[in-house]
Inverse folding.
């Protein structure tokens, strides 16, 4: 019985160590709840997510690429005098410990010139580019 208990304890410890090795590091940037909306071929869609910076370094987000879009860029939507408008944003700064929310009627990544229709359940590949050589790649679900 003791031998069996030791064997199970050792296996549990090894499994926990394996899972810990696969877990993200505490200072990794987190791209949380990413999604895009459905759209027709040639149309536009938008990417929404939360970008969390738990590191001690400031992040400088400089661009985005979406595999099915001819162009992708940061945009800010605003309502002024009962009129909705949108303007491009060149880059974003995310301070240590802060988060930036990309949301409908707010900051978002606009994808234009879709080379394929986006249907509910599809996934697209998104690359977020930062100052320097850093690129984060994430698969994003298309949903309503």
């Amino acid at each position: 019985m003791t031998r069996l208990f030791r064997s199970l304890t050792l296996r549990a410890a090894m499994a926990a160590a394996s899972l810990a090795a696969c877990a993200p590091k505490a200072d990794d940037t987190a791209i949380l709840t990413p999604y895009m909306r459905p759209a027709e071929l040639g149309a536009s869609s938008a990417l929404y997510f939360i970008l969390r910076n738990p590191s001690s370094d400031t992040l400088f987000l400089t661009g985005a690429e979406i595999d099915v879009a001819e162009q992708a860029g940061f945009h800010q939507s605003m309502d002024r005098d009962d009129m909705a408008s949108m303007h491009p944003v060149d880059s974003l700064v995310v301070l240590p410990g802060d988060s930036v929310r990309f949301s409908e009627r707010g900051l978002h990544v606009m994808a234009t010139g879709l080379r394929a229709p986006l249907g509910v359940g599809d996934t697209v590949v998104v690359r977020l580019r930062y100052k320097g050589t850093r690129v984060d790649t994430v698969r994003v679900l298309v949903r309503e």
Summary: Confidence is low (pLDDT under 50) at residues 4-27.
